[in-house]
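so i finally got all the pieces together for this one. its two components total, 377 residues if u count the protein bits. some of the lines might not be protein, just check the labels. i wanna see the whole assembly predicted at once instead of chain by chain like last time, that was a mess tbh
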Amino acid sequence: MTRNLPACLAVCIALVAVSGAVQANERHFTYTYETNVLAPGVIEVEPWATARIGKDRYYTGIDNRLEFEVGVAENLQTALYVNFGVEGIRAGNTIASTANHKGISSEWKYKLSDAVADSVGSAVYVEGTLAADEIELEGKLLLDKRMGNLHLACNAVYEFERNAAENIDEHKLHAMAGITYFVRENLSMGVEAMDSNVFEPASPGAASNLMHGAVFAGPVLGWSRGNAWLAVSLLPQLVGYGSAVPSGRGLNLDEFERFQGRILMGIHL
Amino acid sequence: MRALLLAGVILTACGPSAIPQATAGDVARAQARWPDSSEQQLNQGRRAYLVHCGGCHSAVPPARFGASAWQGYVERMAGKAKLADPDKDLVIRYLQIAARPDSAAEAH
């Protein structure tokens, strides 16, 4: 498990180090999307790494994503990405580590209004993921606003997940929000929060109920130089809820982790 | 979800555009320098600015820099932003007309 992440980070850092003199499609949050889209013909590569640590048992998960984004028309961009990861779970006295390929995804994002020019920036986003035993569809409404050195963003997200192996459909609703302050034009510091809700049937074929929910919040840092950018966050779980009994100190550590952290990089090609 | 709605309301209530549409006064000043200028042209430059420059980073309000500074910024970044003439020329015209007067920019 530990071999994968450092290699990915090393590649990212090397790419940032050789980057040139133009900014890329910057993000200042890690879970919350902003509304800007690449200009037609502009291409960017985005490596991601998400660490998910600590459940009601030993658990560590690393999710990696390598994304290629391209602006296809005015206000429209698309991306194709591959998802892969590793998980470590305690099994008896040993830690079982498994690597997995989580399929390929396609996303499309259309900007409706601009975060600086209009009263509020807005965009719609759809994403589909196809894996060996799973299909995911996701839709997001994105809002953001840049006011001087302050940037606010919020998203509403619906996600449908069909697991063919377990014959279970899951519906997920998420809300994300962030606020960040630009200390300098290329350095921002803020906070980001995420409310995740999982609806699934208690048994195959039954109606879906709210089974799990959790709120995460924590600091986020954004930085850019030349034609590359970086965003990093660490979000501890603050509150857990749902019909599954929360464990620990009011947290839902059955479905969610105690901490999530994410690092995103973007390199303009 | 309530927090999301509240955030949306706050965002929606925000003030006027920092990337203004061209006005008749802007057109008159543009025509003094480029006689073929029109309101439609200046607003086409504004739109191209938002698409090509606002794609990679938040669009910088034109009034933030002086007119003479904008030409250099656009020339330097045009290649990577896939901004070519005639749109590049229109972007420069729009930004220079909407820019802060050079004397005021220098004072800051």
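Chain A touches chain B through 43 residues (CB under 8 Å).
The domain at 4-268 of chain A is CATH 2.40.160.40 (Porin).
anyway lmk what u think
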